[in-house]
Amino acid sequence: MSNPVAAAPEPLVRACDLCKTFGAQRALDQVSLDIYPGEGVALLGASGAGKSTLVKILGGSLAPDTGELWVDGTRQRFVSPLSARRVGIVAVHQRPDDGIAPGLSVAENLLLDELCQPDADFLLNRKNLLQRAQTIADGLGLDLPLQHPVERLGQADRQLLVLARAFALQPKLLVLDEPTAALSETDAERLLGLIDSQRSKGVAILYISERMSDLQRVTNRAIVLQEGRLTRDLNMRHLPTVAYTLFGDTSQTPLLVADKALPVPFLERFTRAGFIRNRAEGRAVRERVAGLQVDGGESGVKRKAGTDPDT
């Protein structure tokens, strides 16, 4: 008697023929892909390839013009990031300040998704709020000043805060856009360890980065977008060749990329303490100061409505 053939695993997320246009430009052109539980998928593509558009559709920030999106075998029509989070898709975009609510404490920002629920108790006992926030931070191994105003956090700590809030939502698919770009070696390694633990629990990761070490650590396959079309779905052993074709030599990519739009108060957490605690922080300060001395270019220019977010 022959052995029964094992059934193929069902995808966690299935995108079918997604299309999106901005004016005369087609940002996505019939993109179809499957993402399975527990796998890490690298999303690669040059600037303007459609990566941000795809991420925003998956995260509920943007609706496709045509095409279908399925999660756990059920067709979905997201109308907001909240509707995507309700079925387990959480997207963390590259700019952490987009996910920060100024005027609130670090603890309140960590519990922001809970506080924004329609039945949230806005008169929540402060002690209970701090205890719940501390439980989340401790569970992720993060040391955050929960009672401080969120504005006092440096850029790296803001990134960790936004990521901690995403992990706390217990997502099924976590979309991460350059999450280690503003982190020191220590914080980046801590984040990658958290991602490893999430994958071991069955969480799928869609990861955008030009940093080869991150991609090789986090992902097991890669999909490539070019001019809005998905052109390759490949094994990670081919990644170095494809990455070189798209980005050039990535072997010398610095751990910390200067953010020219970053305000000076990033340095507050160093100057307030009165000293730089290790070499990684010293490099961080040098990178930030160098970035602040360079013209910000288009980083502070507001995008006109109806234009492609990938350009």
From TrEMBL:
<dbReference type="Pfam" id="PF00005">
    <property type="entry name" value="ABC_tran"/>
</dbReference>
<dbReference type="InterPro" id="IPR027417">
    <property type="entry name" value="P-loop_NTPase"/>
</dbReference>
<keyword id="KW-0067">ATP-binding</keyword>
<dbReference type="GO" id="GO:0016887">
    <property type="term" value="F:ATP hydrolysis activity"/>
</dbReference>
<keyword id="KW-0813">Transport</keyword>
<protein>
    <submittedName>
        <fullName>Ribose ABC transporter ATP-binding protein</fullName>
    </submittedName>
</protein>
<dbReference type="GO" id="GO:0005524">
    <property type="term" value="F:ATP binding"/>
</dbReference>
<keyword id="KW-0677">Repeat</keyword>
<dbReference type="InterPro" id="IPR050107">
    <property type="entry name" value="ABC_carbohydrate_import_ATPase"/>
</dbReference>
<dbReference type="InterPro" id="IPR003439">
    <property type="entry name" value="ABC_transporter-like_ATP-bd"/>
</dbReference>
<dbReference type="InterPro" id="IPR003593">
    <property type="entry name" value="AAA+_ATPase"/>
</dbReference>
<keyword id="KW-0547">Nucleotide-binding</keyword>
<feature type="domain" description="ABC transporter">
    <location>
        <begin position="13"/>
        <end position="252"/>
    </location>
</feature>
